[in-house]
What does this fold into?
Amino acid sequence: MSRYIAFLRAINVGGHTVKMETLRRLFVSFGFSDVETFIASGNVIFQTTVQNSAALESEIASGLRNALGYDVAAFIRTAAELAEIAVYQAFPQSELELAAALNIAFLSGPLDDQGKLALMAMKTAIDSFATYAREVYWLCRKRQSESTFSNAVLEKTLGVKSTFRGVNTVVRLAARVASPRLPR
It folds into this structure.
């Protein structure tokens, strides 16, 4: 069995609230095992014999739509992929030390050359971007509320679905996934 992490977009938005216990039960009902949630922002760790991330994304999104009555996009990463994402140095340390925030966007697939050009065209004095595999790293030099960039802007500009997590959440989640699960 392989261990995966699902990053869910829009699980608790627009007046919808899904308790993490409910989310865990739904993932079990989809046939996954060793299901756990990590903080209440739509991060689900689970195991399955399925080896196709795209198939898992589709299965989870469809299952959540059927169970909840609204669309929730799912972005799947293996434990090994998450470990790489967590340690990837998208920006020089000197820039990171001055930044107010570093966020990581999870995409279903890597950006093509046109997408990368469109992303880099959004760079401002406040915001810088980098890509790695299926992720976009967003360095915000001031408070995010002072930026004109957002997940909605990214999706509209690039024509892709995405979900963001702060780098601290990603690092903590990668550490959690790397540690052996204790028996219940």
About this structure: Residues 65 and 71 are 5 Å apart (CA to CA). Helices lie at 20-29, 53-68, 79-87, 93-98, 113-120, 151-158, 167-178.
